[in-house]
Structures are given as C-alpha cells and as structure tokens.
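Section 5: illustrative case.
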C-alpha cells in the first residue's frame, strides 16, 4: 500500500492551520453545500435513518466548520428511484450550487448520479452502490461502501475449503446480485465446489417461497444468497422457515446484506447460525467501533442499529472533511479526485483505503449470527485482509 499517500489525521492537522490563518477567505466564506442522497422512505427507511445518525455523530465529534467553511448538507429523499436522483442531482448542481455530492443506496441511483456528476465535474462520494461497474465511466465518483464481488470472491473459496461441497445459488436479478452470483460461482467452483442450481429473483420480488422451494428440491448442502438489504431479508427468512429448512440441514451462506443489523431483530432467532461475508459488523472488535456504536445509539431513533450504510456514511464524512481541509476550503474537482485516490484511514470497520480506480480496499470478514448479551449480532470469526473491489488481495 505504499502508493497511498494521505492520512486523514495529517490532513485534518493541515485544516486547523488553514482555518486559523483563514488566508484563502479574505471575505466571509460561503457555506460549503453538499448534496446528500438518502433512501428515507419505503423499504430502506431504517437505512436512511441510520446513515443520518452516522452523519450527526461525525459532525458532533468534528464540528461543522472546516477550513473556515460551514458544512451544509442538503438532503434529498431518493425513495430508491434513479429518476429522482437524476432530477435532484441536476437541481442541486445548477440551482443550489453544491460543490460535492454524497450518499446513494442502490446501483441504478449511482448510474443516474453519474449522468450529472461527469459533465458538471461534481465529485460524488458513494455510501452504498455495490456493483463494480458504477465507477467505470464516472471519473468524479468514488466508492466508500463495498462491492459484492469484493465480499463474495474470498467467500466462494472459503465455502469450498470449509466443507460445503454443494450449493444452490439465489441472487437478485440486477447489478450487485448478478455480480455476486457470477463471482461466487467462479471462485467456489474453482476451489472444488459444485453448484447444483440457481435462480435470479427480480428486485421487486415480495415472496421467496418458490425460489426457496426450488433450492430445497435440489438438495444442496448450503444456499448461497445475495439479496439487497431493503425488505428482502425478512421475505427470504420467512420462505426458508416455511420450507422447513434450518442451519443443521441447509446452511445459509450469504452476503451480510441478509443479516444487516436493522433486519436482525426482525429476523429473530431463526437467523442464528447463518454464515455471512461483509465489510462491517456492529460487533467488530475495535476501540473506534465501540466508540462509533455508542455514539450512534445516542443519536439514532429508537430501534435503529449501526450497520454497513452508517459506517460508510461516517467514513464519507471523514473523507469530505479531509479533502476540504487539504484544499483550504476551495474545492477543485480534479484535485479532490487526486486526493481521494490514495486516501487511507482507520474506519470503525477496520483499515480502509481508496485505490487509483477510486474504489475501496478493505478487510472482508466471515461472520456467524450469534446472540451476545441477549442481542443478535454478526460475530466475525475469519478475516481476509485488504482486498480490492474485485476481491483480490492488495499488498
Ligand atoms: C445496490 O443496489 O448496489 C445494493 C443495494 C442494497 C444492498 C447492496 C447493494 O444491500
């Protein structure tokens, strides 16, 4: 990781110098407006509330002025709709004069944001859109969440090497699901596993019973599933239970979207023993994470738990403060992207870095749902250190 240059600590120190000198702002500096796309209504509303809580935590800890500029976040509810993102992004840029954009939950929303970000040269810091290709033709976008390929590549190998000889694969029929399915099949079969069948439910599916029945009929040792966090986990678990399946007979191997903390309490004890792969768990054992979790519970609405979207939002805030500080409060799009490429810092999920492709490099963890102090948690028990968006190790 020698090519990675900036640490957030160094740059925040620069910011303090810049703000005390205030040399670049002879007149009263204008607020720095940041457009933020959240999924605040519908199936992912809990995720929207949770990312908002994470923003609040960061701003409580670090204040709302960086290099003399007041940070102003203009939040927009996307309702998960790409068309809304396209329209709001255009308005935020042309009318509100935002200098940065951030947030975003779904892959199609990221593609929509790119249609504005690229021609207007407004950088977008993505919280969650997990298909590798969203960055390909979007030079002013960078990802701080994860990609499904990043999580799943080591997981396919892990599953084959840990005695799961046959798997039925279920993955949602759109970007991140297709990537998860393709990569799992590749790495799992390369390590000796056998895929006994597969099915691709549509993104809008409200009911998994037909898909789980097909999996059961194929009699696999395990089901691999990718389903987006918004609404799908409960539907899958209901079908899995209704089909009379349990972890003793057909092990669930999933990406962590299935057992995200804001679904876990609704999934209940039937989720115990599920094995998942992901970049973040509330139960991650580090001092920084314990502080983040405590602070988030203090500001989040009742019932909202820390999860992958919140930690990525917290890290996006850290990155924003860093790049405002590094440029003394004057945002230049090309300099911004140059600073982002090479950023690295400690996140509540562990060490993270952004590479030259503007994509995230981070640890991937294998976890099991267990009850800790009466609470369902994703307990990490294996770590694949620092992999890139394709799931390849980075030295
Ligand atoms: C995505 O659309 O990229 C996406 C959405 C929800 C997830 C993961 C990925 O849980």
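Designed sequence:
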């Amino acid at each position: 990781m020698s090519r990675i240059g900036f640490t957030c600590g160094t740059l925040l120190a620069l910011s303090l110098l810049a703000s005390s000198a205030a040399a670049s702002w002879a007149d009263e500096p204008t607020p720095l407006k940041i457009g933020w796309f959240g999924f605040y209504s519908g199936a992912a509303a809990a995720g929207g509330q949770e990312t908002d809580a994470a923003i609040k935590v960061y701003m409580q800890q670090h204040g709302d002025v960086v290099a003399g500029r007041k940070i102003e976040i203009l939040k927009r509810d996307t309702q998960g709709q790409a068309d809304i993102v396209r329209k709001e992004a255009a308005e935020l840029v042309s009318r509100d004069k935002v200098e940065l954009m951030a947030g975003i939950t779904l892959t199609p929303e990221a593609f929509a944001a790119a249609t504005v970000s690229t021609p207007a040269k407004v950088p977008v810091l993505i919280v969650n859109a997990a298909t590798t290709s969203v960055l390909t033709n979007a030079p002013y976008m960078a990802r701080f969440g994860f990609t499904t390929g990043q999580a799943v590549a080591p997981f396919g190998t892990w599953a084959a090497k840990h005695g799961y000889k046959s798997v039925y694969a279920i993955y949602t029929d759109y970007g991140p699901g297709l990537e998860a399915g393709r990569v799992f099949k590749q790495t799992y079969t390369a390590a000796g596993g056998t895929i006994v069948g597969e099915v691709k439910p549509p993104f809008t599916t409200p009911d998994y019973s037909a898909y789980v029945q097909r999996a059961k009929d194929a009699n696999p040792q395990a089901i691999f599933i990718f389903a987006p966090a918004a609404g799908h986990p409960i539907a899958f678990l209901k079908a899995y239970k209704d089909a009379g399946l349990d972890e003793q007979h057909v092990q669930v191997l999933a990406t962590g979207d299935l057992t995200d903390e804001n679904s876990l309490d609704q999934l209940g004890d039937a989720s115990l023993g599920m094995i998942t792969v992901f970049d973040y768990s509330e139960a991650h054992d580090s001092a920084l994470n314990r502080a983040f979790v405590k602070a988030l519970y203090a500001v989040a609405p009742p019932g909202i738990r820390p999860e992958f979207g919140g930690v990525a939002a917290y890290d996006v805030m850290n990155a924003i403060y860093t790049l405002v500080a590094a440029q003394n409060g004057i945002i230049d799009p090309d300099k911004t992207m140059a600073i982002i490429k090479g950023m690295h810092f400690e996140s509540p999920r562990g060490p993270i870095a952004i590479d030259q492709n503007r994509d995230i490099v981070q640890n991937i963890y294998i976890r099991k749902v267990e009850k800790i102090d009466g609470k369902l948690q994703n307990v990490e028990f294996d770590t694949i250190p620092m992999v890139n968006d394709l799931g390849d190790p980075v030295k």
